[in-house]
């Protein structure tokens, strides 16, 4: 039960981070960012966590590229 709670909190944290990334990069409201994650998860038959982690990884990649352009 404690493990399930920790897992749920971790998923929420990753999803919140991904929503923030989408909101910042795409200039969309929070609800739209969440719908984007949901739609992508459904269309790719992945969990929302997997999609959110992909968003986070892509954002990190782009930030690294942007940092080397300076």
Described by the principal axes of the CA atoms, the overall outline is: globular
Termini gap:
48 Å
The low-confidence parts are none
Helix content: over 70%
C-alpha-based Rg, rounded: 13 Å
Average the pLDDT over all residues and give the rounded result: 94
Query: Helical segment tally?
Result: 3
Quote the beta fraction.
Answer: under 5%
The assigned structural class equals: mainly alpha
Order of helices and strands: HHH
Write up what this structure looks like.
- This protein is mainly α and 70 residues long.
- Helix content is 87%, strand content 0%.
- The protein contains 3 helices and no strands.
- Helix 1 (2-26) packs across helix 2 and helix 2 packs across helix 3.
- The chain is globular, with a radius of gyration of 13 Å.
Tags for this model:
70 residues, mainly alpha, 0% strand, globular
Concise account of the structure shown:
It contains three helices and no strands.
Ordered list of secondary-structure elements with their pairings:
Blueprint: H1 2-26, H2 30-44, H3 48-68
Helix pairs in contact: 1-2, 1-3, 2-3
